[in-house]
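Ticket #431: bound-state structure for LJ64HWYM.
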Amino acid sequence: MQYYSLQHQAPNVSFKEAVLKGQAPDKGLYFPTELPKLPADFIKNLATISKEEVGYTVMRPYVGEDMTDQELKRIVAETVNFDFPLVKINDQIASLELFHGPTYAFKDVGARFMSRCLGHFHKNENKKTTILVATSGDTGGAVANGFLGVEGVEVIILYPSGKVSPIQELQLTTCGKNITALEIEGSFDDCQAIVKQAFMDQDLKEAYQLTSANSINVGRWLPQQLYYFYGLQQWQQQQPPVICVPSGNFGNICAGILAHISGLPVQHFIAACNVNDTVPVFMQTGNYQPKASTPTISNAMDVGNPSNFGRILEIFGGEAEKLKTRFSSVSITDDQTKATIKEVYGGTGYLLDPHGAVAYRALADYQQQNPSQKGFILETAHPVKFPDVIESLLDIQIPLPEGATALNSQDKVSVKLAADFDSVKNWLLGR
Ligand SMILES: Cc1ncc(COP(=O)(O)O)c(C=O)c1O
Ligand SMILES: N[C@@H](CCOP(=O)(O)O)C(=O)O
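RESOLUTION: The complex was predicted; output attached.
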């Protein structure tokens, strides 16, 4: 498989080169030259196939010749060694829980897959790779955990000061070793813009072999397809599901659409956003207008200029009208999110985190108009990551999982920097 730049001003590259570069030299995102079709038998028999075999079969065409079958099987098996249960909330809506990995959010699969790919690619290289990654909450922790101790790789995480939850912050600031956290006095969009600019900067390119571990990197983005296959393995209705994805940078839902194009039956995709509504507005008006992000209680989705929407449009040949046949996007306020957490917990006992609650509200509203269409949400983070929101709303205490208890006794270590490219560049060149 080759990858081309969505800016069309850079040469095509292999999977390995795309992972090592992160972003194309013309600032475009890499996109696969072919969208593989999976065998009809594979889809028909999905429920009987192991999650390791599903992962291997889905990822095989994307990885191409850069890895042996044996190596890819090992990487997939190590990546997906936890559960992805589809849990019924009520007769209309189920929840695909993606928070059973080590950092309690859906980012673990992509981060673990990519870290193992880089570890493999580094076996025969002696030049160190430096990963620059921007986080609005969960990517940072997952990448820190996934890359901790990986030979030949160091990770520098940029996160918006005061805009991530306490557990999220501890997850990304307490690892030490090859992981460094930069606390940026700005928003996630500032962090992401700085990272993207760094990849284009000649001085930094001379000093470092830089790549990204955000979903702009195909090694982080593509394995997110697996969730959708794991969800369908457990889906027991006749009709394919409507799948509603809490969305910020749109990497997750974009991976789901790719899975669908490869043959996975899905009725409709809903991208559920908080008030950061760049995509919902585009779907209504045709006008794509990135804007400064607004802080919300679903903080990991506070993104004003989502990186992956361009990839979604590319799948549909750039035609918004075609996209509308499979995809819609809505914006949910914090008040609606809070009311949904209360309503669902009170009515069913199911505890949603704020991101899952945004998705639940969007899917329930969609089903008001389409009552025969059942579906599931992607529950992208464990509610324990947002105790302030949940506990004040429901007057309950969420028991901390074991790993999270240990975090509380550790001290945050971060470097505070202004939200401008030069501050980060000077820090990188001066260390
Ligand atoms: C808990 C949670 N939900 C949803 C999202 C949004 O996912 P995406 O950026 O892939 O749209 C994120 C961040 O990526 C997240 O951490
Ligand atoms: N919500 C993310 C933001 C970055 O998204 P990514 O999928 O592009 O890494 C976060 O939690 O950091």
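RESOLUTION NOTES: The radius of gyration is 20 Å.
TICKET STATUS: resolved
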